Amino acid sequence: MDLTQRREKIVSIATRMFIEQGYAATTLEAIGAAAGVTKRTMYELVGDKQAIFAAACNSMRAEGPGFQFDIVLTDRSAQDVMHQMARQLINHCLEKELITLERAVIVEAVNNEQIVRISVGESRDNQFLVISKIFDALIAANLLAPMETLTAARIFYDATVGARGFRAVLGLPPEAASDEEIELRINMFIHGYINRIAPGR
Asked: For 136-145, what is the mean pLDDT?
């Protein structure tokens, strides 16, 4: 097993433990024992407990096996691609495992504000980066006008997904979205943002 595989194993096991036990009850010793590695190896490959938790959040968001867009870009309109993006983002933010992990963040944040910045802030940034790459591809295909795609990704997420995931974390009923609502939100994004920065296109 190479170093990348060992790191992935540590993060995968830690993610499961954080989901099942919460942040506070999950120890480095327990993660190491389950992964078959020493604490020193964990520090070398991932970092301390906060770093491992941040990696777990990333694995559940945009940079790991928990989420990747499954979208074919060829022979599609930009609006159709954005509809698929929004649908997959909404479905993902309502996944039970991700909601459980984010509840662990909220509980721990009472005593440790930094964990929110590390685990949520960085993983959100990674998710926006994945969204921006789709916009880059649409621009390269001349389906969208040139724009600052990371800013577009943040606005797109807010317009289409909004606070659905956060409300689910708080225990409110999950809010699915109809195709009609997604189209409405995408049109708000197009007319309220894209058409403002690239009028006449």
From this structure: 93
* Count: domains in the chain: 2
Number of H helices, E strands in the chain: 12, 0
**Residue given tokens 């694995």 in the structure block:** 59
The model's pLDDT over 13-36, given as tens digits with 9 standing for 90+, comes to: 998 898 888 888 899 999 999 999
90 neighbors 83 (Cβ within 8 angstroms): no
Which range marks the domain in which residue 164 is found? Answer: 78-197
In this model, does residue 155 exceed pLDDT 60? yes
Tokens 């007319």 label which residue?
Answer: 191
CA atoms of 111 and 115, how far apart (whole Å): 9
Please give the mean pLDDT across all residues of the chain. 86
Res. 66: pLDDT tops 60: no
Measured CA to CA, the distance from residue 188 to residue 201 in angstroms comes to 16
Residues 135 and 190 in one domain: yes
CA gap 55, 18 in Å, rounded: 11
DSSP class of 25: T
Kindly list the distances between the CA atom of residue 47 and the CA atoms of 40, 53, 66, 137, 151, in Å, as whole numbers in the listed order.
9, 10, 21, 34, 30
What pLDDT is recorded for position 9? 93
- How does DSSP assign 36-49, residue by residue? T--HHHHHHHT-SH
Q: CATH no. for residue 44?
A: 1.10.10.60
Does pLDDT of 124 surpass 80? no
